[in-house]
Design a protein that fits this description.
The chain contains four helices and five strands. By secondary structure, it is α+β, with helices and mostly antiparallel strands. It has a five-stranded mixed beta sheet with strand order 1-2-3-4-5, with helices on both faces. Strand 2 and strand 3 form a beta hairpin.
């Protein structure tokens, strides 16, 4: 059983948990600083959800971005990370359900996310939660030059 809650402060515990889990998602992304985590937590456009296990340890995170554009309120789930020990136990599902509920409460008609095909368990979860693949192209621009 996991308890999911939005982070309300960038405490040392939250900053350390994000830094420890980020390599599970990206080997190249540097860990965010305390001020960068605070920026995420304090932004009205983003919510950093934390999943805690029965002992109160942070074992998962998810960032939800909600924003208004001319076509309506949109929501985007990013950086879903679950520790290896908590995988397969419902942590990712609990994080996503909390984010979906928050997005709907904010008036978002849709919630989008991307997931690499190699993340087979995550992709099964997203389909089980009702996400549907879309026929689209995803493009990325980097100010640092070409991206692979």
């Amino acid at each position: 059983m996991f308890v999911v809650e939005p982070a309300t402060e960038a405490t040392p515990e939250v900053v350390a948990a994000v830094a420890a889990m980020l390599p599970l998602l990206s080997r190249s992304a540097p860990a965010p600083s305390a001020s960068e985590v605070a920026e995420i937590v304090n932004s009205p456009a983003t919510t950093l959800f934390l999943a805690r296990d029965g002992d109160g340890a942070i074992v998962g995170t998810l960032t939800l971005a909600v924003f208004r554009i001319p076509s309506g309120v949109r929501a985007w789930i990013e950086d879903v990370i679950v520790t290896e020990a908590a995988r397969g136990g419902g942590c990712g599902e609990a994080l996503n359900r909390a984010a979906i509920a928050a997005a709907e409460a904010a008036g978002a008609r849709t919630v989008d996310l991307t997931s690499r095909p190699s993340r087979e368990a995550a992709n099964r979860l997203y389909r089980r939660l009702g996400f549907v693949g879309r026929e689209t192209n995803v493009y990325r621009y980097s100010s640092e030059g070409p991206v692979e």
